[in-house]
Structures are given as C-alpha cells and as structure tokens.
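In this supplementary section we document a worked example of the pipeline. Step one takes a protein sequence of length 203 as its only input; no multiple sequence alignment statistics are reported here. Step two produces a three-dimensional model, which step three serialises into structure tokens for compact storage. The input and output of this example are shown verbatim.
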Amino acid sequence: MAENHFAHRRPRRRPPLIALTAGVVGVVVAAVAAVMVPAADAAASTLGAAAAQSGRYFGTAIAASRLGDSTYSTIAGREFNMITAENEMKPDATQPQRGVFNFSSGDQIYNWATQRGMKVRGHTLAWHSQQPSWWGGISGSTLRQAMIDHINGVMGHYKGKLAYWDVVNEAFNEDGSRRQSNLQATGNDWIEVAFRTARNADP
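The serialised model returned by step three reads:
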C-alpha cells in the first residue's frame, strides 16, 4: 500500500475533489486526502471537519519527536481527524531485535491522537525498506516466518485499537511489476500471506 492516506467510503457519484497539503513549521507534512468542497453556507472550519461532512477523513503523518513543538502539534490536532505515524510503527522501529518489540514511540503517537478524538492508521507491517537490521541476515522460509511473527507481534499489541493498517507497503513498481526485494524472494505469495496473517491477527 502506498504511504498516502486517502479518503474512504467514496459515493458512486464522485464529488469535486481537492488535493490538500499542509505545511507545519517549515516542514512539509504530507497530508493527502480527497475532500468534498462544502457549500458556502456550510463551510467547515478545519480540513478534518470538511472531510467529515461527506463521511471522509483527512489525515496526516506525524513524528513523535515533533509533538513537543507547540505549533506543529496545534496545527496537527486542529486540522486533521486521522493520524499516521511517520516511522514509529515501521518494522525497524517496532522490532529492532529479533523477538524484542518496542512500541514506546508508536504508543506515544497513538495516545496523542486518541486523546484528541482522532483515529489512527497503522503504517506499516511489511516493506522492503526500513527493515530491522537482522532481517538482512536471513532469507527464504526463515525471513517469511520472521515477517509473519512481526505482523502478529505488532498487530497483537494494537489489536482493536487502530482504524486501518497499511499491511504491505510499496510492493509494486510504478509500471505495475513486482518490486524485487528480500520479501519477494521468499515467494510470490508473500503479499497474500502478509494480508492473511494480518486479518487473522486483528480482523
């Protein structure tokens, strides 16, 4: 799945769409969503409120290390109704050592968002990039099992808490071909296995 966070529950007849980007303290925070433009007499006061008028969400990725920046956190808390962790829930962050999970930064983002009534999107469980260093020393069925164990461990921790998960990230090239990676080398069914594992871990 791509990192961009798109609106859900689109109606059959597509309304006018706008792509929006928010800049926070000189750092561009990618916030991509399809948002219905509200009527002038029903204009919403924030991006999240505008999206909610048509049953959508407007999300952004945030970094736990930036939450202490009052301008950053104020804008993020005011404008959005869905949050994704920038890096804090990726494989290298959540399982730096085999069998040793670390959810401190991911939990910080989760708690910050939910305390403000925002939903959280998990990102990401299986990816060719930002893997734990120890994944580089294994391959084949051993790596496949490590991926499965990782998905179960992370989703077990957040079971029932997150609204959505980017289970697999960027598994395809822009031309539609499969990206060659150590995960792809474990077998052509690795994407299906990842999704089935995730579904079983937290339906």
